[in-house]
Actin-bundling protein
Amino acid sequence: MTDQVRSTKLKFKGDKPKKKRKRDDGDERVGSSSSSKRKVDDKDPETWVMPEAVNELRGPTFIMHPSDPSPISINYNSTTNRIALQPLDKDKVEDEAESVKLLDRTPTDVSQVWVITRVAGSSTINIRTGTGEGKFISCDSHGLVSADRDARGPQEEWTPVVLPDGMVAFMNVYEKYLSVDEAAGGTLQLRGDSEEVGFAERFWVKIQYKYKKEAHEEEKKRKDGLTAPPTIDESSTNRIHQAWGAGRSVVSDADKKELKKARKEGRLAEAMLDRRAKLKSDRFC
């Protein structure tokens, strides 16, 4: 007789024996969905990603435009206190520049990074410099764009619109759009007096992954009724290249709907802020 203990599990004739699977890690006993979720969460928080919704536009931001012959980034020159449109391929070898796709670009200098903060109770945002004392991008009634304001007011507010193709348009308080314009001598400059969104008014924007994740978590809590609408505190926080021409690209119906919605939300938020200010003044009178 043998001392080996027999298995008490019933076996039926014709049953195929099951092979035992070896586990490389004894702690790896979670479902596939949990594993995939953990892999997503392991993503570097400072990875530059594309925003998919307006509420994701926050924190450090990299803004590009697919200009021709070279795409450009919107920079801030802290020496002159001026906005500078810098060709992204300026310091690159031709072969190296062509190998890097526009949507894979990331900022290589602090002058290329802006900080987006959201106005509490409004759909508008502020865009300030990431260097120096923190100057806000503003636009006056004549369409002149600058970055020399220390404080924020109506002219420093922008309503972003994420278009169906993933690009972003920025509308100012005068319901005109930020654009890249060709000035005398062929130099490029920012303007804020465009009536419609065409090629010149579309920008590629990148944000850091941790802020995109933060926006998703806040939106989930808001839908579950666990928190009020999010407010961002400032302290915590291809198209193929086309040649410049006189004509503008035709805006699709989907784009027009998004822009119309943005205008309506902007006016509603403005009315609410005006009413709030009036009630406050009446209280002290």
Summary: The first strand starts at residue 48 and ends at 49. DSSP finds four helices and 13 strands in the chain. The radius of gyration is 26 Å.
